[in-house]
Amino acid sequence: MATRLLIAEDEASILESLVFILGREGYDIVTARDGEGALQQLQADGAVRLLILDVMLPRVNGFEVLRAVRGDAALAPLRVLMLTAKGQARDRQMADQMGADAFIAKPFSNQDVVREVRRLVAP
Amino acid sequence: MESGFGLKIREKRKTLGLTQAEVARSVGISTSYFNLIERGKRSIGGALLLRIARALDLDPAALDDDAERRLVTELTETAADPLLSGLDLDAAAVPALVGRHPAWARALALLHRECRDRGEVISAMSDRLSQDPFLSDVVHRMLTTIAGIRSTAEILDSVDDLEATQSRRFRANLAVESTRLSEAAQALADFFDRSEAPKQAITPGEEVDDFIIAHGNHFPALEEGTARLRARLGANAAGGTAALAAALASRKDVAEGNHRPLSAPRRARAGYRDGGYRDAGYRDAGHGEDALWDGDGTVSEAGRRFAMARHAVLHDLKDTIDDLVENAPQLISEEARQRVVSVLASYGAAALLFPYDPFLEDAERLRYDIGLMRRRYQASFEQICQRLVSLRRPGAGGVPFAMLRVDPAGNLSKRFPLPRLPMPRHGAACPLWAVYRAFQTPGPVVRQLVELPAGDRFLFVARVVRKGVDSFAMPARQLSVAIVCNAQYADRLVYGDGLDLSGRARAEPVGVSCRVCPRADCQHRAEDPIVPT
User: Fold this and answer.
1) CA–CA gap between residue B174 and residue A93 (Å, rounded)
2) Helix B220-233 and helix B318-326, axial crossing angle in degrees, nearest 10
3) Which residue of B lies nearest to A21 if distances are taken between CA atoms?
């Protein structure tokens, strides 16, 4: 069975690209366009192994999603890859303290994303 | 330590072929003391300075070179800059450097000022960039859009088996994101267009000071120009200030200008600057000058007259002012040139309203009683002070005064130093100075006899003045204005009456500013001294 990823990203073209490149890698992909949707999906679907999480999400932002995830024992095995804007050192520091597993700065290269995802979901 | 002062004495003595003992004897001091003076180990002033100058046929002003002293203070502060801490600079060598290589010393000081200016600008810009919410938002938008473009372009470039519909979809995304990127970039460019300011020197005040000091705060061209202007207006000194004011008011440009704000370009040409010199601006005519403390503080006649005179000077003596500004090597920044135009306009206004010879005569006769001078000339406290400070015609000068004006926070907004009484270049002066104490008793004139660490004695005369309209929402501005003279002149002033002016009498020990003050035991110290005491 393919590994399931949840991509939470509000920017349509980034989301579309990520779905395409990671789909080609054989992952099973679900998406959310805001933080609230991401949390709902995670609670409904225990099969998600990795959350790709943008920081600047509408409604509930990426940090709040991360906090909720790390405060939920049922989601303990979930890996989280955060997408931060380049140069936002404070964002990265905060994500690190709050328990993100990795970061990728925008603008990223597709290869970096693929490599990082592979690493995080490796058994 | 060898000072430029000592060097000058020594060089002149040698030129005259005199020995130290001969000069010491002729001025009535010991050879060893004279030796200390020549080597810069003792600083002197007052009568002894005058005697030595006379004995060596030197101009006392050349000996008491305040510009040089300021340069020494400035370079001593420079030596303490953390940037140079690794170089182990000997602050005691500064006077010798200034004395022997004045041009190099000035170059160092100029470079350091510039360096400080740039530093201030950079930190201001960096604060601005890191804290501006618009900038952070637009940068984030750009990075996000670029992320979309980059990711999409990589797919189009590297995936060979893209289906036609997918390819169309990604290309459409590229077009959309490119448009968004252009918009964000445009917003950013607009932002910088709007916030682009001309390079502003942080230290134009110092250039202005250098200019005024270089002229000894006396401008013969303006004195002559205003005398001609007064004659043209048909008001002679005997007619008094009121007649002159009437003549001014009858002039169309002056009278109209008085009731109408200047347009921005005219203000710029006239050297007005929002903020710093607004109180001297024409737009504030009638409201800008200080009112009597117990008056209603709305419209001061003195302020209205001064503004009219200033306007006439700017209009009629423009060439004279431009000439002075254009030929001033001290004025490097445009900002400083603009400020000097404003300063000279005020100088001219004072010269027009308070003609030199009768004003000096009255001052001497009334023993510099500013209250009586105000009544005689129907002028404000500050206007009288400012004119007194400019009575420096060689051979026909009044008592030499320093002048300063501070706000309750201690910011110096006007300063004119005296030899041996330097004014701090930035930050506050000594908190013990009467100019600050006057805020405790606003209204009456405060006088104070002080002694500086080097032994020089000065008499301070200070008073709080009020500027602007007093409203509950925006209370009038309170400023303390002081003039200061060397104690040797105090007996010519009404303010010296009743004071024991003998050298043995007690004078309040004060400094210039904490950073250069050696009084280790002062309980008013606010900052550590730069040179350890």
Assistant:
1) 32
2) 170
3) B155
